């Protein structure tokens, strides 16, 4: 008899859910394997995995400067053969690799400080200061294995079993899953779908008042995942004021800060807004505690697999910071390659020829994402049974879908949520893998689906045709 069973392992693990790699993607993996042996079984010739923001998995090319530098740092003996490298690596790639190796003479195979390389943290602080116009302290920067590791550490730091943490609905399931593992309570506040998924202070107050436990923090994702919205300044100011009034930590997930596609709605950081409010005397200086997160996985570079990121802590008590450092030390250090990618992300090349190539690659990727975001809106607007807010940022569309009562009844027979049935049927019929809105949370009585708009432009029209074609057939079948 096995000693480990679903009844004997940690029940908090069993309770935790992570929809972006849940039932629909698991089934997609089964289909992908089966298609290699029996392709004739399926009414499509390829799978489109739009369930997750994973750009390189959908054939986005990495930036050449970044990969040249990483290649040389990973194989430093190549730097001794500079004559051979010429013509294959740009002079600035070689120089940057040499600069990295001068800062880390032991190479990338050794542990680092638990906060990460000091020179990278200094560069991050300079980047934040240039972005916001307010100083940043390198000692308050922690490099992390992607933003997720930082989020988990902070939630573990602040939330004891039974404590509450306010999270947006819809939300990225990292937050709900981590709170489940900690035995903490998820306190929902709803984004306003009728106002481009904005955050209203009245809703924050309602959520706080309805909670039956001590609230430790409020989490916000801007630009939004899964909703693809960018917050306006008033909403950001209201959120900061709310956290000040209630005396709770503000956790700002800003990993999509580069992915803003509408000039009239630029990214505005919570750090910048907080500093402005302190400067102007709208809130007392030092009283709003903030942790903000960024990552190399999103933006334009999309280096998900290299697991690089950072968090900045602001107005946090020194004794608490010692505990943050201790938690970072438990994992010894973030991975070294990811740390260097953070430096490359915020410290682009400066030599004219290399910078021209870099800027061209970045511009092409950004403009392509912007076109795809626009095309999603244009394609879905006017389609019966689909309701979509403008896609302003991030990498996702999150349309509300009408599911007929007959389909709701059928889903009940199958023992799944209606939007799960919708996504599973889409996968089986047209080979598109999406995520049901119930995996992110949604207002009762509504149904949504999230998909990334990362499929490359050469297949994007076909991708949208599959989605719309399935939806129309689904409505016709169940009306």
TrEMBL record:
<dbReference type="InterPro" id="IPR015424">
    <property type="entry name" value="PyrdxlP-dep_Trfase"/>
</dbReference>
<dbReference type="InterPro" id="IPR015422">
    <property type="entry name" value="PyrdxlP-dep_Trfase_small"/>
</dbReference>
<comment type="similarity">
    <text>Belongs to the class-I pyridoxal-phosphate-dependent aminotransferase family. Alanine aminotransferase subfamily.</text>
</comment>
<feature type="domain" description="Aminotransferase class I/classII large">
    <location>
        <begin position="90"/>
        <end position="453"/>
    </location>
</feature>
<dbReference type="InterPro" id="IPR045088">
    <property type="entry name" value="ALAT1/2-like"/>
</dbReference>
<keyword id="KW-0663">Pyridoxal phosphate</keyword>
<dbReference type="InterPro" id="IPR004839">
    <property type="entry name" value="Aminotransferase_I/II_large"/>
</dbReference>
<keyword id="KW-0808">Transferase</keyword>
<dbReference type="Pfam" id="PF00155">
    <property type="entry name" value="Aminotran_1_2"/>
</dbReference>
<comment type="subunit">
    <text>Homodimer.</text>
</comment>
<keyword id="KW-0032">Aminotransferase</keyword>
<protein>
    <submittedName>
        <fullName>Probable alanine aminotransferase, mitochondrial</fullName>
    </submittedName>
</protein>
<dbReference type="InterPro" id="IPR015421">
    <property type="entry name" value="PyrdxlP-dep_Trfase_major"/>
</dbReference>
<dbReference type="GO" id="GO:0008483">
    <property type="term" value="F:transaminase activity"/>
</dbReference>
